[in-house]
Amino acid sequence: MTVLQSIVLGAIQGVAEFLPISSSGHLALTSHFMNLSEVPLLFDILLHVASLLAVVLVFRTRIWELFCVLGRFLIRKPRIEDSRDQKMILSLIVATVVTGVIGFTIKDVVKTIAPFYIACGFVVTGFVLFFSGRHVSSKPAKEPGILQGLLIGIAQGIGVIPGISRSGSTISASLFCGVDRKTAGEFSFLLSIPAILAAFIFELKDADSLIGTVSPFSLLAGMITAFVVGYLSLKFLLSLIKKGRLGLFAFYLIPAGIFFAVYFALAV
Asked: What pTM was computed for the model?
């Protein structure tokens, strides 16, 4: 893999990880057209880790607050005002466990999914975003709880499939559960932290094959690009979530998905 190819993949990862258009799907299709099928999954996950640093940077204050709440709970010195964040932490744990179970169950399918089905995933994601963007609950906004964590975790587990956006699935699921837009975005990206770290640890066994196909300089270039572009994309998406404009991405995903589905169907 050349440095330029690594930068291109890093830029795509940075954009598609946070914008709800499926980073894994775009990386898979880009690798297909670049003829980079020999690159191990660990490379993709390291790009995810680089973009994850952008999440930590943007939400650093919120992450610290949750760690403080968890610390006070563990030493049995909670505050009255901690109850909301305790509920949030419990919901994040439930969602993470559910995602882990689903991800482990379908991991072999994910690695071998054909480009045609990735394109179909774009269409599915597009329709989900379109309807979630138009969804307006008549009930008071809810805080994420155990039930919400369960449903959002299922959505994130499905989002492991290339073509199905993780952020789009989790944000949409949160909105359908009655969570307000700001909290839905926050919850989605906080939830990405344990998911990406778990995937990274699980794929460390491929470290030797990664070194053999990607030079350290190319890897570094890709990760830096993923971090910078990811940070900018995340800030942009958060502003769109607050304005309720997630549905705009449907106008890209649905036509793109149909185009690539037809392309791969005819190429067979």
From this structure: 0.86
